[in-house]
Design goal:
By secondary structure, the protein is an alpha+beta fold. The protein has 14 helices and eight strands. It folds into two domains: about 5-140 and about 165-190, Endonuclease III, domain 1; about 230-349, Nucleoside Triphosphate Pyrophosphohydrolase (Alpha-Beta Complex), CATH 3.90.79. The strands form two sheets. Strands 1, 4, 5, 6 and 7 form a five-stranded mixed beta sheet that branches. A three-stranded antiparallel beta sheet has the order 3-2-8, with no helix packed on it. Helix 9 crosses helix 10 (about 160-170) and helix 9 packs across helix 11.
Amino acid sequence: MPNKLSFADRVLEWAQQHGRKQLPWQQQRTAYRVWVSEIMLQQTQVDTVIPYFEKFMRSFPSIEALANAQQDEVLHHWSGLGYYARARNLHKAAQIICDKHQGEFPVNIEEVVELPGIGRSTAGAILSLSQNQRHTILDGNVKRVLARHCAIEGWPGAAKTEKQLWAIAEQCTPATNNANYTQAMMDLGATCCTRTKPHCHECPVSQDCLALTNGQQHELPHAKPKKQIPERSTVMLVLQNHQQQLLMQRRPNHGVWGGLWSFPEFESEQHGLDWCLHTFQSQPESRQTLSKLTHTFSHFRLHITPISVRYSTPIHWVMEGEEWVWYKHGTSQAGLAAPVNQLVKLLVN
């Protein structure tokens, strides 16, 4: 294991010159802003997150504003960012904070970890960066730095490997200046000790990096063991009425695209057309099979066949509950999954 003081001092000195200091969530650094940024940055690159973060903060400038928003509005601001459970958990956590903590983000790590969507590392990052509390973090960037520096074998997500890395991270975390150290470690992994083509000649801790010494800097950390991704197929019915509105169905809060609006799905085109006949008592005047789309999730790959159908005359249907909506691009505000948004734009352009 590295010497704690030596390691931290070198990382902090490097960050003074090379660390990122102009990211939007680093300005007016509050627990709320740090929290939102940390959730958005999970599984997502900084450049992608920046415009989403800025728009999110304009619409929901406080925890109370987020808590009082409709879930549809929150998901609309998340459309295209992926991993939508993050948005649902963020919204739910804001409501809990208003109910249990008078709208103030808790500063006790045990209470922070109790909030939905916040794990040990994220909680530590929020309190370290916003409160300068001493907490250890172990996000993907930090795992990579430490796995290389200490030549830790195995996939970092495996329980045994992660336990080793937590112990090393704890030893390296300094007793003071914790906010700067936390940010420095994130920056070191993101900009120097990168996943591919690490800049070892610029690294402040390269002199005692075991991976570099052993020529393993391109091998460590080990990748997640590969397994074949299941393939699934679906038919999406892209149904447009005489007012050029698109029929959307809200998906369940759990599972794929939870809480988002999507086109109705069927096993086959014929099933979709039969549903149209049963629901509207008439077949659409036109139909067209659009180009297939493929969307890859973390646990399976979905092949989508979109069938565009149009009704040129008014159709009568009394919609029950809140599961259906006639969507009009440019006027409706709803959270759409990425491939659904892609299809909508294709139809209106």
